[in-house]
Amino acid sequence: xxxxxxxxxxxxxxxxxxxxxxxxxxxxxxxxxxxxxxxxxxxxxxxxxxxxxxxxxxxxxxxxxxxxxxxxxxxxxxxxxxxxxxxxxxxxxxxxxxxxxxxxxxxxxxxxxxxxxxxxxxxxxxxxxxxxxxxxxxxxxxxxxxxxxxxxxxxxxxxxxxxxxxxxxxxxxxxxxxxxxxxxxxxxxxxxxxxxxxxxxxxxxxxxxxxxxxxxxxxxxxxxxxxxxxxxxxxxxxxxxxxxxxxxxxxxxxxxxxxxxxxxxxxxxxxxxxxxx
Length: 277
What we know:
2 domains, alpha/beta, Rossmann fold, 10 helices
């Protein structure tokens, strides 16, 4: 019987736990606040920013929102980040990506103080993760680990395969699985015989950005399949990087799209915001 990993329900539980934590800390005079910066009015970005504001409101932390015009210069954006770095009331800074083409994303990410880097994208945050030191961890891979743990899925000693090597998901995902004592293989576009490598996996995490790439030929019986991808098909429905219906019967557990990994990203962002309370 395949277990459907319900990210929506787990995310709600985590936010409820954080709500209680925030209330207790507030009684001790400790507060948290997330500053969210959006440059331009990309519709998808606006939805994400709005969801982050709602999550802050739900758990009881402050939020500051900066909606900047598309033509905002890089210097103006960096100046705002500098002022938020110095603002003791702000515990986390998030710049919504993607940014307009005239702004260098790497420069912006590096400008955010590692002490307020709740996205976990700063090179110092990534470095801390790679050597096992404390620091902010990228929200989506952190959410995957949380899902596995809350469903009592053992990682230690398991064959873990990650498909996709992005800085935001693939690489930190591999490091987090390694930190939990998984035996990790990180695959990418140059991997030879991807099907054979994936077929070895006890835990298969797919974050490659190609709709329904992974079908039953990639999945061994009894595997746990975590689908990080999300795409809108021509019929308007959402799908992931995994062909859900095709692999479902093979899996011991699987995340659906939507409602799997997606809701965990904001839950982990909220957890990062509360990290130093």
